[in-house]
Amino acid sequence: MDKNINTLEDLEKAVSTDNALPLGNSNLVFGEGNPNADVIFIGEAPGYYEDLEGRPFVGRAGKLLDKLIDALGWRRDDVYITNIVKRRPPENRDPMPDEIAAYTPYLTKQVEIINPKIIVPLGRFAMNYFLPTAKISRDQGKLFWWKEKLVIPMYHPAAALRSGDVLKELESSFARLPVVVKKFEKFLEEKEPTSREEEKEQKEQKRLF
Ligand code: URA
Asked: 89 C-alpha to center of ligand 1: Å?
């Protein structure tokens, strides 16, 4: 990764011209929203409609994400929305480990540039990038530290479209977001310094509610 990349525009240019990236037959869906957002939502990979429009979360799962954001009194433009893999896998299959590995340096840089307070991975693929040993059914809605940012993994909205129980859990995890944003500075002050070893083991897992 070029060290001189400091803006989302430069980063998008770099992803779009990186011919070594897999899934090169589909369109780039880089991400969109407030470049100074407090909260970034990270999905898995674009689907059919996202590929067509070049925008993340614009299909059925995206409509649910919009509704969940609206319910907080926030607007989609207030937050930033992207995916771990930035091109559509064929037939909407799960992203492969090598595809995730190829795109994650760009995601890491994107998060670094936006510098949000809260990272919300939607579903297990994005979650396991930040929290490699976390399990979505066990850990969704919990708070974790990752590089001085809070990570709150949540169910993928597509899973919530298939199950009423998942939808309820997703809604209640979403409902905590405004409080977590508001209390972020306080949480940061109270954060105990941790060793690398501890971070590795994710011992900073916290239930704040
Ligand atoms: N599902 C995702 O994970 N991301 C999108 O952008 C759309 C659907």
From this structure: 11
